[in-house]
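Hello forum,

I keep getting stuck at the same step: I have a sequence, I want structure tokens, and every attempt I make locally crashes halfway through. Rather than fight my setup again tonight, could one of you with a working pipeline run this one for me? It's a single chain of 531 residues.
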Amino acid sequence: MTSLWPPPWLHCDETTPDPCSGTPIGTHTKCLAHLVPADRAAYLAGLAPGADINVRGTRITATLLRQLLAAVRVAGRPRLGKADFSHVDFPDGADFINVDFSGSDADFYLASFTGFACFNGSHFTRGGVNFHDTAFSDAAFLGMVVNGTATFVGSRFSGDARIEHVTCRQVLALSNAKFGGPTRIDAAAERVMCHQTRWDATASLALRYADLDLTGAIITQPFAVSVSPFARPAETAWFSGSSPDVRVVSLASTDATHVLLTDVDLRNCRFTGAAHLDLLRLEGSTRFACPPAGVHWRWGVPRRWTRRRVLAEEHAWRALQEPPANLAAPTAREWKPGPHHTTHPARTPNPDDLAPLYRALRKGSEDAKNEPDAADFYYGEMEMRRKDPERPLGERILLTLYWALSGYALRAVRALSWLILAVTGSFFALMLWGLPDVDPKPQITGKQTAVGQNVRLTVDSPDPTLTIDYGDRISGKRAEKAQRVLINSVVFRSSGQNFTTAGTYIEMGSRIAEPVLLGFALFALRGRIKR
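Reply #2:
Ran it on my machine without issues. Output:
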């Protein structure tokens, strides 16, 4: 029954025991529930399959509903045209099993189902169905087919809810709904909207083809999202050419403590404002966005982005940093713009917003013993710290060096390349400037004294000198010596070789830089192969 009185439509004149808000039938002044039996029988007898029904605000018992559906039955299946059940009170629940709603829309706005509501096998063949602000106890929608949008916005399910094997051509709208009992949703839809939906009991969402939006959802119990394995007949016509994957597009402002995502696509997912991302469980083949592939040119300099898992928000932020030429030619963009790229660029998260997101996802992956994914999220966290203009300049310089030398100790190829370059540079530097012409021999000097007197001798080591021409410094003998000296110095930490002044500094640099670079490479390899 409507909470408005008087209701904003022509209503029944029955006042005993309470005023009735039901819509009058035909030329009568009473609703279907209050018609005298003869008038009700005449009305029902005049109905044909596909007839439009308007029983807004009426109290419909299980018996009355059976009589109504029997009047429009054809080939064993009730068929209704445009159906208005808004504000209807179903005190005994409702049995709409296998009902064909062939009108443009079916409206159950603000209806109330006190008992079990069953829509198993019901078909809304020419439009959508509206359960906006509807109150359910236990409800089942098994095998329901909706050729439009199924709206449960603001609905309340106090008992079990089973929305299974449902096919919805457009949107399955669950925003602001409240699920108080165990919930099972198995549906194929273009989009599933769960803005600020409240889940106070265990819930399982098995979806196909859907973009799932969980912005601001209130999740207090275990909540699982996965790909439904069940194909439905209507899918072939409605979703032909689309991927059956589940694409989670937002966890923004959601507490992820109880959320489990399995085999979902997170390439366009927004995480800004999500709480407890470190407790988010990711299982199976969960996909994130990647950096742009291939070689890209910026300011005449080629660049290539290494592969890693990237948040959609980082894509959006980097798209704002691209050169004007790229912004004017969208096909030339390296990074994917966000939803506010042109209208409200200030709403795009900045590096200081993204670093905590990466840090939380890294911690969650580490807790799950997933080192490769943790390494990717750590890389993203360090990138955002390096790019954050609010951080001290000294910290950003150190992070830039750390990135350039080894990719934050996560890029083995980069660290090994620098190691090879450092070894090669040290090798040639020793040949050119570090090794003397010849190893100087110690000279012993002293004074002859009388017999029986102590002899005082002085051992002097001349400074190594390098005077040969540059062309003579590159030779097989000097190369062999430089190699031996370098290995002894870096690996065994003692070469026993006399160097020129330049050679001494070259050896010191090698002893510091090359083990560090080797350590970076080993750390990077360990992070990639450890499970």
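The chain is about 30% helix and 20% strand. If your local run keeps crashing, start a new thread with the error log.
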